[in-house]
Design a protein that fits this description.
121 residues; mainly alpha; 5 helices
Amino acid sequence: MKKFLFVTAAIILALIAFGSVGHMIGMAISLLIVYYSLKQFTKTESTGWKIVWAIIGLVGISGLIGNLPALVGIIAVYLLYTGYKKWKTKEIIIEPTETDPFTGFERQWKEMEGKLRRKGE
């Protein structure tokens, strides 16, 4: 059952990630525009060019705001990645090592008896 739920969640996350690819590309382009305009803004000495680069930077920032749904896609990709790593290390599926539930109890009881005997000696 855990495996089924994990696979279902992975499929849903993959659909969300694929649905957000366009927004992720738009966000990356907007980030490049903002970065380049900031670099050019700090390099220029002319007031006119500073105004031009500031306007270009504001256009890039508005593009970033328009592509905020890309954050959902980025989170989905991150969750898929961490889930894949856990799947590979088999931390998600916990299989019982003992079939009899009382063997663990008996082992712990023997450990407690041994500790009590050592204290009494």
